[in-house]
Every structure is written in C-alpha cells, then in structure tokens.
C-alpha cells in the first residue's frame, strides 16, 4: 500500500492519502510499518477542511477493541495506541507549532479527539507496571520524571474537548486507585506492596495532570492539586492506625465514634483553614511511623518531581 507524502503544489501542500476501508489489523500494520510514523505526521499536520474527521475514522475502533474479551483484539488495540503515543511524544514540538504557533488541537481537533480516545484506555498502563498489559507499556521508566508521557499528554491537551476527556479519565483512575487503597490499607496492618504501588500510580497521575494542565472535571476543580491529593493519601494511611483524638490530631477531626473524618468532610465543615490544620496534623501523625512516613514521602517526591521537572 502506498502512502502519499506531503508535497508542495505552489504554496499549498497536497493532502495526504487516507486509505479507505482498512480493517483494524491493517491500521495497526500500517502505523507500525517503517513508514508508519511518517504517515501519522502527515495526517496530523495537514490542515484538513473536516478538522481531521476522515483521518480520525482510522482509529475509531481502538476503544472498543481495547475492552474486548478477545486477547488478540486487545493486543492489536494496545499496539496501535502505543504507536500513537510514541508518535505524539516524539513529535510534540512539531504538533504544538503548526502554521505559526497553531497547535494540532487548533487545526485538527477531531483527530486529536480520536487519538485521545485511543489512549485513554491505556492511561493506567502508562503509569504502572502491569504484567497483564496487552500491547501497551509505559513510555518512560516509572521512577523518572516521565518526560515522554508528559509530552504526549501536552499534545492531547491542545484541544479543549480532549482535555476534558483526559481530565475525567485521570479523575476516574485516581478514584479507582483510592478505592483500591481503602481495601489494601487495612487497619492494624502494614501497607502491602500493592498499596505502595497504588500510591505511586496516583502520584504519577497527579504529577502528570498538574504538569500538563489537564482540565479537571468541573465538579472536582481541586482534583489535580498535589497538596490536596497528598492529604487524601495521608488520610488513607492514618486511618489504618488512628483511633480517636491524640497528641497529633485533635478531636474536631474525628466523628463521635472516634473515626477520622475524610478530607472532603473536613473542608465542608471547617473550611480551608480547618482543612490546612487537618492536613498538617495528619503529616505530623504519620511522621511517627517510619513505614507510613516513607509511603507519604514517596507520593510527594514522585508527584512533585514529575510536575516540577516538566514545568521547567
């Protein structure tokens, strides 16, 4: 199958050829071929009259196949999404500066939305070591500042609709990990390796969202604030061992039965000043336990490293 490269006819580049009626397996083979990244760049930087709608159709199947019970379909979808992610990361500078400071999100928002839809099912795998992953893997070492992942997200975030989609997907992933932590962080026991991994996944998500400026859900405007999420993690850690007022956490932060109040309840009842006092008391309480302090510190270090190093 031939792929037409961009060529200049006068001052106007000719439109790239978009193959018609390709099966998902053929799309995966095309994007993974020696010319695959060149093809993706051609269809991405060209100023389509339909804002990239026809090109977007090439990838419309990826979300459905990502959730298929068929492992072969999962693999094909994962490989295609990974190729897209690698391309967006490697070409982020060019994609964010098309036609004199216009981004791909300005020029081809529908195509950006399709790329976003293809990658969203794999955001969890982008920030974790998932042995069951099919076709997709992290772009970066998990103990790094995750520069490649950040670059990919910057491109997807160039379109407002895609930014909203990403914000909801990030929020849902963070919530899913929090729910896992309520089970994994069992009162009276040390944190499991699974719990520690979940904490770091949340840290990577929050750090990346913060660095990329991804739009949080309207109902959760503080979702990607590192300090806010730090307090959520500290609450989950503290509740495994605290049982009523003590020298570190005063009575106003406990319910009548001695349970530690969640951060959201504290903010609603006592306002921002009360929440800040609560946050500081949680930190002081956790500092007395080496294991809990290490987990809390690992969250802060990971999230802040990703956010700060990618905002330089």
Annotate the secondary structure layout.
Elements: E1 8-9, E2 12-13, H1 24-32, H2 36-45, H3 53-56, H4 62-66, H5 71-90, H6 92-95, H7 104-107, H8 109-119, H9 123-126, H10 147-156, H11 160-184, H12 193-212, H13 226-238, H14 263-286, H15 290-309
Antiparallel strand pairs: 1-2
Helix pairs in contact: 1-2, 1-5, 5-10, 8-11, 10-12, 11-12, 12-15, 13-14, 13-15
Give a brief rundown of this model.
It contains 15 helices and two strands.
Report what the structure shows.
The chain has two domains: 15-158, no CATH class; 174-312, no CATH class. Helix 8 packs parallel to helix 11. 59% of the residues lie in helices and 1% in strands. A hairpin with a 2-residue loop joins strand 1 (8-9) and strand 2. The protein has a two-stranded antiparallel sheet with strand order 1-2. The protein is mainly α and 312 residues long.
């Amino acid at each position: 199958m031939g792929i037409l490269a961009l060529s200049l006819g006068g001052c106007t580049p000719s439109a790239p050829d978009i193959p018609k009626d390709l099966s998902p397996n053929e799309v995966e083979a095309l994007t993974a071929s020696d010319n695959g990244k060149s093809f993706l760049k051609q269809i991405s930087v060209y100023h389509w009259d339909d804002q990239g709608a026809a090109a977007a159709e090439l990838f419309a199947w990826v979300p459905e196949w990502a959730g298929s019970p068929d492992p072969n379909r999962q693999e094909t979808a994962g490989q295609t999404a990974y190729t897209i992610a690698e391309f967006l990361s490697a070409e982020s500078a060019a994609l964010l500066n098309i036609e004199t400071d216009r981004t791909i999100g300005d020029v081809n928002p529908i195509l950006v939305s399709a790329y976003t839809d293809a990658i969203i099912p794999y955001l969890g795998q982008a920030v974790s070591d998932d042995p069951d992953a099919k076709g997709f893997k992290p772009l970066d070492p998990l103990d790094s500042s995750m520069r490649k992942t950040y670059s990919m997200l910057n491109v997807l975030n160039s379109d407002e609709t895609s930014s909203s989609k990403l914000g909801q997907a990030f929020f849902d992933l963070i919530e899913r990990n929090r729910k896992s932590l309520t089970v994994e962080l069992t009162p009276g026991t040390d944190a499991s390796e699974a719990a520690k991994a979940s904490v770091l996944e949340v840290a990577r998500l929050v750090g990346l969202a913060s660095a990329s400026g991804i739009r949080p859900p309207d109902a959760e405007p503080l979702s990607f604030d590192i300090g806010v999420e730090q307090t959520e993690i500290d609450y989950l850690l503290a509740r495994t061992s605290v049982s009523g007022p003590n020298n570190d956490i005063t009575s106003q932060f406990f319910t009548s039965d001695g349970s530690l109040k969640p951060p959201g309840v504290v903010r609603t009842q006592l306002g921002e000043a009360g929440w800040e006092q609560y946050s500081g008391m949680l930190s002081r309480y956790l500092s007395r336990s080496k294991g809990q302090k290490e987990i809390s510190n690992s969250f802060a270090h990971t999230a802040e490293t990703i956010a700060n190093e990618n905002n330089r």
